Amino acid sequence: MTYLDHAATTPVLPEVIAAMSQAMTLTGNASSLHTSGRAARRRVEESRERIAEALGARPSEVVFTSGGTESNNLAIMGMYRARVAADPARRRILAPVIEHPAVLDVVEHLAAHEGAVVTWLEVDDFGRVHADTLAAAIAENPADVALVTVMWANNEVGTVNPVRELAEVAHHHGIPFHTDAVQAVGQLPVDFTRSGADALTVTGHKVGGPAGAGLVLLRRDAPIVPIMFGGGQERSIRSGTPDVAGIVGLGVAVADAVTHRADRAVTQAALRDELVRAVRAQVPDVVLTGDPGAGLMDGGPSRLPGNAHLRFPGCEGDSLLMLLDAAGIECSTGSACTAGVARPSHVLLGMGLSEVQARASLRFSFGRTSVPADVAAVAAAIGPAVQRSRRAALAGSRRR
Q1: pLDDT tens column, 290-300
Q2: Is 345 helix (H, G, I), strand (E, B) or coil?
Q3: Fewest CB within 10 angstroms: 20, 144, 332, 347, which?
Q4: 337 an active-site residue?
Q5: Pairing of strands 177-180, 145-149
Q6: Catalytic hit among 17, 131, 337, 349
């Protein structure tokens, strides 16, 4: 198979498997005071320090979780509740409509059940939130804003947001800023301190680590309350017995992703650009969605190096995906977290595309194991697949 869905999940690093396997042979609850417990705690703290160094944070700012979804829930819900408790007037949340479901669903839950008022931030044609857009939204009433959340890079179209500028705008009004950096780590230069964010979400399985292990980087002075309760682990912000093996694997994966980021980004961007050229040669009317990728954003590229989001007019993305899958090529029609749901991408609709345009899209995403042969496979299969998809779509419209 040609695997081009690294934005959904990545192959686990052999070094991660080895480190986790070794950790799983050892007994000890990291909260226990005896020798085995202290040894387990040491492995957790060593991983915490390793991750903090890699991401420009203090070890005390690393809060381990079960992954990106929990981290987003904790950051957004925890900060919202803390802000409302301190000032009941602060119930407005600012977020772009093209966020990942792990952010959107939390915001919508707070609106439906806890009195939150949501201001949806507009994005440009590339799917980017601009600092002046955020400033205007805050200016409507700075005193009622609880928090701002804007993803570092979009998981579907790959557009990168000006996180540092957005954080500065929020902080000018004393408003905490959260960013979902799940797609950014390993592809972009992510430095927590420099970013200005109060909370930043990371997950392991996007960088060659295990699924079920993640973290939120959280400033010591960030307003937050726990959303789950128990033994008071992780600064009493996230209770639960630490998954020592998962945390060890996460530490190895994050360090590897950051160490090799620059070289891998060059390789993946070259493969992405070659794929776009190859597909255009076979399908001249294909459209690249999102930022073209020629600019810079916060010291890194303006588009994720490994992302190629393409629209194929006259096709149904689902049928095209299955045709490519039959040819041994694995890609996606959008976020894997909404796979199987028969509706067009909310990201593309939020960018102003029609439902027909949104349904005609595929995302190809590269990773550390991608090679030129992957591009060649797509180039050989895409022309016939598009022709078949268009014929099927045309026949379906005639029957209707």
Answers
A1: 999 989 998 89
A2: coil
A3: 144
A4: yes
A5: parallel
A6: 337
